[in-house]
Design a protein that fits this description.
The complex is a heterodimer of chains A (275) and B (350). Chain A is of the alpha/beta class. Chain A folds into 2 domains: 35 residues, no CATH class; 223 residues, 2-enoyl-CoA Hydratase, Chain A, domain 1 (Alpha-Beta Complex), CATH 3.90.226. Chain A contains 10 helices and 11 strands. With 350 residues, chain B is α/β, with parallel strands linked by helices. The longest helix of chain B is centred in the last third of the chain and has 21 residues. In chain B, strands 1, 2, 3, 4, 5, 6, 7 and 8 form an 8-stranded mixed beta sheet that branches. The chains are: A alpha/beta (275), B alpha/beta (350). Strand 4 of chain A pairs antiparallel with strand 9 of chain B. The structure holds zinc ion. Zinc ion (ZN) binds next to loops of chain A.
Chain lengths: 275, 350
């Protein structure tokens, strides 16, 4: 598959241009190639840089095992929405920028020899927001997992529902959740992996409906964004508020897993829960 | 009694009403027959309201949905839910005043009522967080739904929230998780669920009690993925463009009906529910009883299959780029035709 070339192109957008870059975690200047070769981690402080959906899948799936499903879905512009530019135009621009048709990739894969349905959201494509295409792909993945009796793993990063699709994007929350109800009734396993950032409509639907919920370290996870909460509360937010560590402490995560260990942790969990 | 002039476009009504009252006072104190004049003024008033409400912009509609005198969930409970037995608490953390749950009867039908409540006076509004539920509110609602399922009672939900509460405690207690669980459980709850948006249908906060078999919306209520102010703040970096955002989001009942999100628009009294809450309550009760009876008539398995299909089918995706062009052109044409001033709402039934 042509995925390797796509990674190379999109990876450049994820980690800033140039040989060297400044890490937002430790502020050290680090060698870019070293970040790319080490799971998108800072070699000094292990800061987890954001990954595109395709890079994420390449890091999780056994080499060459990923077979993409629903690859050609595109979103319509049901509201004929225009903000600073028409939504239809914005979609085309985002497609050019990212090499993706929308913000999700789903398909069948193997992780350490274990077959599964695997999906990932893309933080580059309109902030990983969920419109019709993300909703349809995630729902399709869930239904495929139910039909094939394979475990389901979705790596979620999203700013929430996609405003430009209005109420239709809100309904994708209900759609993905309804599909998960059926998967659950069928005894299927869903492991949800939350990565930075995962908020609003995606957090308040399928991402928090995992049988097991995992997060990467220091990810921003929550319902409302910190700025909105600050405006409502009119006081400083607690230290570490809405981080993975905060959520673990409050009982909303099963575990925090560093990116290099994610593959082996998923494989081990699947062995406990798979049939 | 008519309310005071709260919204800018209501001010002319109030001026005319004052004039009518003045004439009536004169009529009572002095000889001479002014009844013809009064009747003429009343006709003018009705015509004026009808005209104004016929041309409401989406933003005006949002304003009406938030009108301080608009009937709230507890008003409707008082009007038409008999033998209401309120149930409190989520059994984990607390009792959220923004979410009212309990057994009750409408039109002789036993139901489980779940309603978002904003509060009327300042004290109650603060206690209700202005109608923004916390996680314990959604968990209380889920507890009520499970009881309803156990005893085969239809669930009736009344939606009226600016959104789920965005606060520190709400996040600490898992606002996202609480809403997510409700979406999943409502999709498979083995009893009928019918919902009506009675005021504001604010995003996930509304959807958290809004998944079901039948969805109605009052004529001057809205339902949106984000508040117009929030949308404007994100897209145009200023909340002042809320009016433009309201038009772009297609959040009016007519748009929602066209998009297939709601099944029915429930007409409001002339000039909005706040001008005649009793009439509004009568209409709403009749509709709810109809929804409940209709849902009850359907065999449960068929009902659940239809509920899933209803939820599953929402979304506009295509695989063929050529089909996309056609679809978008159709959406553009529909928008141009449906709402030149974005204000072509159906005229009320009065
Ligand atoms: Zn670093």
């Amino acid at each position: 598959m042509a995925k390797t070339t796509v990674h190379a192109a999109t990876q450049e957008k994820r980690v800033p241009e140039g040989l060297w870059l400044r890490c937002p975690g430790c502020e050290n200047m680090i060698y870019r190639k070293q970040v790319e070769e080490s799971f998108g981690l800072c070699p000094d402080c292990q800061h987890h840089f954001r990954l595109t959906a395709r890079r994420r899948i390449a890091l999780l799936a056994d080499e060459g095992s990923f077979e993409e499903m629903l690859a050609d879905l595109r979103s319509a512009d049901p509201l004929n929405f225009t903000d600073r530019k028409p939504y239809a135009e914005r979609l085309v621009e985002e497609q050019k920028k990212t090499g993706m048709l929308d913000a999700a990739v789903v398909g069948k894969a193997f992780i350490k020899g274990r077959p599964l349905i695997l999906g990932a959201l893309d933080p580059d494509f309109i902030m990983g927001s969920m419109g019709s295409v993300v909703g349809e792909k995630v729902t399709g993945a869930i239904e495929k997992a139910a039909e094939t009796h394979l475990p389901l793993v979705i790596v979620s990063t999203s700013g929430g529902a996609r405003m430009m699709e209005g109420i239709i994007s809100l309904m994708q929350m209900a759609k993905t959740s309804a599909a998960l109800a059926r998967l659950d009734d069928a005894g299927g396993l869903f492991i949800s992996v939350l990565v930075n950032p995962c908020t609003a409509g995606v957090a308040a639907s399928f991402a928090f409906l995992g049988d097991i919920i995992i997060a990467e370290p220091k990810a921003l996870i929550g319902f409302a964004g910190p700025r909105v909460i600050f405006q409502t509360m009119k006081r400083e937010l607690p230290e570490g508020f809405q981080t993975s560590e905060f959520l673990l402490e409050h009982g909303f995560l099963d575990m925090i897993v560093e990116r290099p260990n994610l593959r082996s942790e998923l494989a081990a969990l699947i062995d406990y829960c798979g049939k | 009694m008519a309310p005071g002039p709260i919204l800018e476009f209501e001010k002319p009504f109030a001026a005319l009403e004052e004039e009518i009252q003045g004439l009536e006072k004169v009529q009572a104190e002095q000889p001479g027959d002014l009844s013809a004049e009064v009747a003429a003024l009343r006709r003018t008033l009705v015509e004026m309201i009808r005209k104004t409400y016929g041309g409401l912009t989406p933003w005006n509609l949002v304003q009406v949905s938030r009108h301080p005198q608009r009937p709230l969930a507890r008003d409707y409970i008082d009007y038409f839910v008999s033998d209401f037995k309120e149930l409190h608490g989520d059994r984990y953390f607390g009792d959220d005043a923004a979410m009212v749950t309990g057994f009750g009867k409408i039109g002789g039908e036993k139901i489980m009522l779940i309603a978002e409540h904003k509060g009327r006076d300042t004290k109650e509004r603060v206690a209700c967080h202005f109608g923004c539920p916390h996680p314990e509110g959604y968990r209380k609602a889920l507890r009520a739904m499970r009881l309803a399922e156990k005893y085969a009672l239809p669930v009736v939900t009344l939606i009226d929230t600016p959104g789920a509460f965005p606060g520190i405690g709400a996040e600490e207690r898992g606002q996202a998780q609480a809403i997510a669980i409700n979406l999943m459980e409502m999709a498979r709850l083995r009893t009928p669920i019918v919902s009506v948006v009675i005021g504001e249908g604010g995003s996930g906060g509304a959807l958290g009690i809004g998944v079901g078999d039948r969805m109605g919306i009052l004529q001057y209520a809205y339902y949106s993925v984000i508040s117009p102010e929030g949308c404007a703040a994100i897209l145009w970096k200023t909340a002042k463009l809320a009016e433009a955002a309201a038009a772009s989001l297609r959040l009016t009942p007519q748009h929602l009906l066209e998009l297939g999100i709601v099944d029915e628009i429930i007409p409001e009294p002339l000039g909005g529910a706040h001008r005649n809450p009793r009439d509004m309550a009568t209409t709403l009760e009749r509709k709810l009883v109809g929804f409940v009876r209709q849902a009850k008539r359907m065999p449960l398995e068929k009902l659940l299959a239809r509920r899933y299909e209803r939820i599953r089918s929402v979304g506009k995706v295509v695989s063929d780029p050529a089909a996309l062009v056609a679809l978008n052109a159709a959406a553009a044409a529909e928008k141009a035709e449906a709402a030149p001033a974005n204000g072509n709402l159906p005229l009320d039934a009065n």
